[in-house]
Design goal:
Blueprint lengths: L6 H16 L29 E5 L14 E8 L3 E9 L2 E10 L6 E9 L7 E9 L29 E4 H5 L1
Antiparallel strand pairs: 1-2, 2-5, 3-4, 3-6, 6-7
Length: 172
């Protein structure tokens, strides 16, 4: 009795090996995995140029002003001649980011109802917060390993919430 490999089995194994080589994690074409903030290696917090008074705006008011399933409304004060990144997070997962800037060299600017657009619309309840980061490398994009979190004069992280938001209610 011959127990050598059968051609169909050998061919199947070869096809599986070839296909496995074609599949890659993080290869070209991007990744569907959300960005997360690393627990170690986070840059040293900064204070210069960071916003103050960061808070959710219009949540719970009639019409939840500025809120929808794909954007979050905030208020803040930004110092003269500065910029920052506002990052919406659920746990350590980045849901959306925006760069805010004040080009006036002499005066701070206050913003009420400025929005952070989410990467994908949200459904159901989510516990979210918005954290301010300095754009450490100046590219206008949030880079978790590069951009430093903003701290207030008192040493606290500049952030909102966290707040549980039912995005289904915002859709109606």
């Amino acid at each position: 009795m011959d127990i050598g490999p059968r051609p169909a089995v050998v061919l199947s194994v070869v096809v599986l090996v070839v296909l496995a080589g074609c599949l890659s994690v993080g290869g070209t074409g991007g990744s569907d995995q959300p960005t997360t903030i690393p627990q170690s290696g986070t840059p040293t917090p900064v204070q210069d140029g960071c916003p103050s008074g960061l808070a959710f705006y219009g949540l719970g008011s009639p019409g939840d002003y500025g809120w929808s399933t794909d954007e979050v409304a905030v208020g803040y004060t930004l110092p003269a001649d500065s910029s920052a990144l506002l990052v919406v997070l659920e746990d350590e997962t980045v849901l959306g980011t925006t760069k805010v800037s004040n080009t006036n060299p002499d005066y701070a600017v206050a913003a009420d109802g400025d929005t952070v657009v989410l990467d994908d619309p949200l459904r159901g309840s989510h516990e979210i917060r918005v954290v301010a980061y300095a754009d450490s490398d100046g590219d206008g994009e949030f880079d978790a390993g590069t951009d430093a979190p903003c701290h207030s004069d008192g040493g606290e992280l500049v952030m909102t919430g966290p707040e549980v938001v039912d995005f289904d209610e915002l859709a109606s």
